[in-house]
Amino acid sequence: MKSTTTYSTKSGFEIKEMNAETRKVKMYLAKFDNMDSDGDIIRKGAFKKSIQEHGPNSASNRKIAFLRHHDWQQPIGKFLELTEDDYGLLAVAEMGRSSLAEDAWKDYEDGIIREHSIGFQYMKDKIKFIEDDNLPMGGYWEVTEVKLYEGSAVTFGANDMTNVIAVMKSEEKETFLNQLTLSFNNTLKALVERRESSEGAFEYEMKLKYINSQLVQLATTESKNHSVKTEPLLKETGFDWLSVVSKINV
User: Fold this and answer.
1) Which pTM value belongs to this model?
2) Residue 54 in contact with residue 66, Cβ under 8 Å?
3) Are strands 146-154 and 65-68 parallel, antiparallel or unpaired?
4) Diameter of the chain measured on Cα atoms
5) Is 132 helix (H, G, I), strand (E, B) or coil?
6) pLDDT tens-digit readout, 13-27
7) Which domain holds residue 185?
8) What does the alpha-carbon distance between residue 98 and residue 112 come to, in Å, rounded to a whole number?
9) CA 94/CA 1 separation, integer angstroms
10) Which residues have a Cβ under 8 Å from the Cβ of 122 and sit 6 or more positions away?
11) Do 147 and 216 lie in a common domain?
């Protein structure tokens, strides 16, 4: 069963248009009716509620964010449009004026940014496993609704990042774990310091959720590499980080 408590990421699709005069980028963030490497098929309408509640035209002060690398401390612009068509989730974003946004725009122009990825959460009663003996997994997950947090410009899509982790050496994985743990602790400290104020707290909360998902991804990759048969690693009650550390140097 897919976890409905963690922050998940999924690779997006192609850039459709770029306009240097307006610094706007048009892109697809997700595709409908297509089975991805996670065994998911997202149906049209999956993003409708999120767009209504947190989209560009909503009254919410917590809009769906446009980020770099899923990092909530790296906003690079804002979404002007988020719509669903028959193909997928279509977005129009305007780049900001910060140095981060300027660097991202140059990377768009140079072809360094070629992909996008969404940060979201599965909804427990909106995912269903459809059995199909003709498929390698024995079926697929039909996703009819998700909670969409953000869309990110990325150098490598979410699935490519999983492959990168899989081929890391033990010492590289240990360094990656240490970096994630340090970032987690620093972000948690910042969140605690801002607990009396809502300003910035949401961004830190989302960053913690994303870091947690990366730690889970690292541990999951380790388990697969060592052929350890386990129950789903992420439990509703938490995650056993000691098992992650013990597997790094195996």
Assistant:
1) 0.71
2) no
3) parallel
4) 54
5) coil
6) 678 899 999 999 999
7) 168-248
8) 19
9) 37
10) 2, 3, 4, 8, 143, 146
11) no
